[in-house]
Amino acid sequence: MASVEEFEAAGLYDAVVDADSGRLDLLEWLDGQGFTIVEMQQAHSVVAVGLVSLATDRRLRGGELLTRREAIELSGLSPDDFAAAIGIVAIDRFPDGEFGFSTDDAAILAALGLFPAMFSRDAAMAIMRVIGSSVARIAEALVSVFLQDIESRHVNAGGSEFVQAQQSHEAVGLTESGLGAQLNSILRRHTMQAIDWTRRAPIGFEQRFDYRYAVGFVDLVGFTPISAKMSPQELGDFLGDFEGRAHDVVTAAGARVVKFIGDEVMFVSTDPDAACRAASALMSGFELAGDHVVPRGALAYGNVLLRGGDYYGSIVNLASRLVDKAMPQEILVTDEMASAATQCQFTSSGQRMVKGFSKPVSVNSFLNG
């Protein structure tokens, strides 16, 4: 067992500063869990992760992880279908190009891969997308409720780091209980993904529970009059195709579909450039010029409220209403979004009066990225 002196030498503990924080209890508990000094140092160096999450992360990950190639081979799915089917995006703390899947995860995907034996590929993919997006929302709801109801209150009250770590570690047990008996692997994986996003989204260490996201909306201009001429079957096929392709291109860009509202899709990302890529892909993927149905979009960047797997706040409202100001095939973005998306290019488009906002909003048109 490591000594107090070793913890001090490693920069993990200061007898004066950390005297009442529960830090020493936490370090000794982690040491008893088998974590090394180096692992503790690595966790301690990451803002919004830290020592309190070390045991929780390991419990979520489960056993030994597979490489992307190994997971694809075990799943029996094609490389294109593997991630898109259930909405998987990369997690920062996993090696580049890897998803962090276990053998159990691959087995679940293999079971999902049996759907094409009964249904057409399009129908099977639609089922898997529903499963993936639904489990993702469950996972994000679990994470946001824990952060708001337990962790934020504990931290704001100056509670012990050791108690905080134990609360987090115990909460992960929900993914191992009857709640996720049939979808345990996917729920656990999406929970890791949801946690990763909440760690990337905080503004800074002092604003741990304030989240900054890029929020996007894309809708289809001309859809209403055209849909009135469609039979129920045609309308169902059109919306199914729209939702399926939107889910795939948004996921591939590194963003997440939050919900569909008729012919409109809402998506988010902690990475502004990824949100721009998602919007751009939606622009190029849904133009039906012959039917006069073309997409338009809007993006805003700023603080949001996470609640129940959904996103709220003035930034969300702004992006939602700004889409109505865009021309067909145009993506309007706020100044904050344009500044944050450093890999994309924009041109100033003046100001727009937006419903619900007292002052004109300065906007930019997306060019490329």
Name its key features:
alpha+beta, 8 strands, 49% helix, 16 helices, 16% strand, 3 domains, eight-stranded mixed sheet, Alpha-Beta Plaits, 369 residues
What's the short version?
With 369 residues, the protein is of the alpha+beta class.
Task: Report on the architecture of this protein.
The mean pLDDT is 81. Helix content is 49%, strand content 16%. The protein folds into 3 domains: 4-45, no CATH class; 61-203, no CATH class; 211-368, Nucleotide cyclase, GGDEF domain (Alpha-Beta Plaits), CATH 3.30.70. The chain has 369 residues and is an alpha+beta fold. The longest helix has 36 residues, at 121-156. The chain has helices spanning 4-9, 23-32, 37-44, 54-61, 68-75, 79-84, 103-112, 115-118, 121-156, 161-171, 184-200, 223-227, 232-252, 272-285, 314-322, 335-340, and strands at 211-221, 256-261, 264-269, 294-307, 310-312, 331-334, 345-352, 361-368. The N and C termini lie far apart (51 Å). It contains 16 helices and 8 strands.
The largest pleated sheet is described as: 8 strands, mixed
Structural class: alpha+beta
Looking at the structure, the CATH topology of the largest domain is Alpha-Beta Plaits
**CA(first)-CA(last) distance:** 51 Å
What is the radius of gyration computed over CA atoms, rounded to a whole number of angstroms? 22 Å
CATH class of the largest domain, please?
Alpha Beta
CATH architecture of the largest domain: 2-Layer Sandwich
How much helical structure, as a percent, in the residues?
Answer: 40-55%
Number of helices: 16
Low confidence ranges: none
The overall pLDDT, averaged over residues, is: 81
Note the overall shape. Answer: globular
User: Which H/E pattern describes the elements?
Assistant: HHHHHHHHHHHEHHEEHEEHEHEE
Beta-strand portion reads 15-25%
CATH homologous superfamily identity of the largest domain: Nucleotide cyclase, GGDEF domain
Oligomer: single chain
